[in-house]
Design brief:
Blueprint: E1 9-14, H1 28-44, H2 52-60, H3 64-84, H4 93-105, H5 110-127, H6 136-149, H7 175-181, H8 186-201, H9 205-209, E2 216-218, E3 224-228, E4 240-244, H10 246-259, E5 268-275, H11 297-300, E6 308-318, H12 321-337, H13 345-354, H14 358-370, H15 375-381, H16 388-393, H17 403-411
Parallel strand pairs: 1-6
Antiparallel strand pairs: 2-3, 3-4, 5-6
Helix pairs in contact: 1-3, 3-5, 4-6, 7-12, 8-10, 8-14
Length: 413
């Protein structure tokens, strides 16, 4: 019997709830709270006890990311205290100065050390004891660290639009390049929607994973509005609305239709299962077998041709922040493999390493500066409480649109 070639690929998409995807372990926030109790008990020994009311209300007032940061910071201080010996909490001024030196020896950045001191202040509050973090000698020790190390923080590599904004061409990775690199399958439609929406709205990763279908409103001109009910600077939930371009709304619609998402979390996990094609084969006779082969009538039976298959399973829960970061880096690597960026070797590795979910927010900020916007409106659009962060993100682009530049462009040609 002649072999029949099989080239077609059968695609199956399982809607949310139809695919048995492994579920993430829940209760992470509760686990961190338990870890905090254990750390505080370890650090206080027999000298102090946890004030239950303070602890409960402090945990309720903080976002899960803040609770995680608090646990990580206290774990670092616990390691220092184990080396130094003695009671870790409550701490005196000399111990905190020694802790700053300990952090500097391990090359921690000044911003990280400052955050860990703030976490120690929270720990003293939980124990209802005086806090020495604000003492003059502790502040001077931190100021000395900042002077020696410098306070400039590493900034996420920007993902600017790459076309139509500003006079200078944007090199390297851009939003346009990553969108072009996204595949045309279900996962690619999701990734393109994530990138497009994340850029338009300038979302933090915590806001991006929280996007839900119910928070979006389509407008008559094809654009859309997205409600951001909570944010890093809005823990009380006053909320804000951001504008989404028609291009983003089209990409979101394509992803929703392909994944059969009608409500709930917008961006979800996509599990992919692939099988290879198989040629048709006649039944095998005894003489077809090797002399030492075992006779197995079931395996010797004729088998029909089988097309290659790919099955996509759509999850029911939102993607994690770690998954969002992986999507951006993976798409950037795909863009490099397709020759969409002129980067190679160490330059390529550095550019991909610099990308994160915050790159979309940084890119939008820089594009706004390149478009001639001032820091005030930019801070309002990106939902910052002050212009300081906007100016830091647009450090290189802000001077070209400030008051001096606007005046001099008209008279110094």
């Amino acid at each position: 019997m002649p072999k029949r070639s099989v080239s077609a690929e059968i695609v199956t998409i399982l809607a949310p709830g139809e695919a048995p995807l492994p579920q993430r372990r829940s209760g992470a926030a509760q686990d961190r709270a338990v870890q905090l109790v254990e750390l505080l008990q370890e650090l206080t020994g027999e000298g102090a006890s946890l004030v239950e009311l303070n602890f409960q209300k402090s945990i309720e007032a903080r976002a899960p990311a803040s609770i995680k940061a608090l646990a990580v910071d206290l774990d670092c201080y616990a390691r220092f205290s184990a080396e130094r010996g003695g009671i870790g909490l409550p701490a005196d001024e000399a111990r905190l100065v020694a802790y700053i030196d300990y952090c500097e020896a391990r090359r921690l950045k000044p911003a990280t050390v400052s955050r860990r001191l703030s976490s120690l202040a929270v720990a003293h509050h939980l124990l209802d004891v005086p806090c020495p973090v604000g003492a003059v000698v502790v502040r001077d020790a931190l100021r000395g660290l900042r002077r020696r190390a410098g306070v400039r923080q590493r900034q996420a590599g920007p993902l600017r639009l790459g076309e139509g904004i500003g006079r200078e061409a944007v090199r390297g990775f851009t939003l346009s390049v990553l969108l072009e690199a996204c595949g045309r399958d279900v996962a690619g439609l999701r990734d393109a929607a994530i990138l497009s929406l994340g850029y338009d709205a300038g979302l933090r990763v915590s806001e991006l994973v929280a996007v839900a279908v119910e928070l979006m409103e389509a407008q008559e001109d094809g654009s859309g509005l997205l409600e951001v009910p909570h944010s890093k600077a809005d823990q009380e939930g006053q909320g804000a609305w951001v504008w989404l371009s028609p291009d983003t709304m089209r990409r979101v619609a394509l992803w929703r239709e392909a994944a059969s998402i009608r409500a709930g979390a917008l961006f979800r996990r996509v599990a992919v299962i692939r099988t290879k094609p198989r040629e048709a084969r006649r039944a095998l006779a005894i003489e077809d077998l090797a002399y030492h082969a075992r006779v197995d009538r079931e395996r010797m039976a004729a088998r029909p041709a089988r097309a290659a298959t790919v099955t996509y399973g759509i999850g029911e829960r939102a993607l994690t922040p770690a998954a969002m970061r992986l999507i951006i880096k993976r798409t950037a690597l795909a863009a490099a493999d397709q020759g969409l960026v002129d980067l190679m070797g160490a330059d390529l590795d550095h550019a991909i390493d610099a990308l994160s979910t915050h790159s979309l927010r940084v890119g939008l900020t820089q594009d706004l500066f390149a478009n001639g916007e001032d820091a005030g409106p930019i801070a309002q659009a990106l939902r910052w409480t002050s212009t300081a962060t906007a100016l830091r993100y647009g450090r290189k682009l802000a001077p070209s649109s400030n008051a001096a530049a606007r005046m001099l462009k008209g008279v110094r040609k």
